[in-house]
Amino acid sequence: MSNLELDPREIRCGADAGADSEILEGRAVPLGGPRAMTVSRSLPGAHRRMIGAWCFVDAYGPERATMRVPPHPHTGLQTVSWLVAGEVLHRDSLGTLQEIRPGQLNLMTAGRGISHSEESPETVLHGVQLWVALPGEHRHTGPAFEHHPVLPVLAGPGFEASVIMGSLGGVSSPATAFSPLVGAEIAVDDACEVPLSPGFEHGLLLLDGAVEQVTPGSLTYLPPGRSGLRLSGRGRVMLIGGEPFGEEIVMWWNFVGRSHEEIAAFRKDWMEGEGFGSVEGFDGAPLPAPVLPATRLKPRGRVR
């Protein structure tokens, strides 16, 4: 999915993890024009910009809507598409044509550059779009796409977790990851304890139902040091986490880079039709890049 804001703020991320738990309030962001679907963006937040390598969290629905995101570019990241309800059709410049449905994973690795589009018929849409920042040694890797229709499950008393990315409780996803992390949808139907990696920081997002420890409409941040997570209630929760990301990055619009000059070069290439390929089959023009801000983009600490 694209960040369709016409005046995107500079998003500054890097080292310097905070120590305390936080509630990261979601803010409403419309995707597109007057009939746009509205998403709740809880990461990056006003204070915390990353959780592990996870650098972007959009939640949407449930609402009856039509998704139409024109071809747009990405660099230096992976996009993770996860649906609770609905269907979305992915096209990209590698020639991929892939539908995604609830419980399936679409994972796109941008690396040095890729473009893609997403669209759906009018239907009830409910899901999340997440981005993972690529570490320096992998950020220029070749673009790639993976579809995983079946994912491994970690089950315990009172919960069942589909492991989307990385590992949870010794169960590992087949999806490609470039840094130590976890992404999982946890179905809670009673009081339970989910195992965690103590070296990871984590975030919790309520997808549906009611789980006492998770604030609806917000992302709950948990610092490193926990070996287990106690949850109670009935509902579904998205868990993300990873080792605190040890690099400073610049994230602007749909690009992750390391400097103002690099972001400006990505934008120039996209506007001139270079370096990102083309998406075939989408009925519409590519998305133009916003104008760069008047001030320089600077990599800074990931906690403001």
UniProtKB/TrEMBL annotation:
It comes from the Bacteria. Residues 39-132 form the Pirin N-terminal domain. Transmembrane segments: none annotated. Pfam families: Pirin (PF02678), Pirin_C (PF05726). Residues 191-273 form the Pirin C-terminal domain. CDD domains: cupin_pirin_N. InterPro entries: Pirin (IPR012093), Pirin_C_dom (IPR008778), Pirin_N_dom (IPR003829), RmlC-like_jellyroll (IPR014710), RmlC_Cupin_sf (IPR011051). Belongs to the pirin family. This is Pirin family protein. It comes from Nonomuraea helvata.
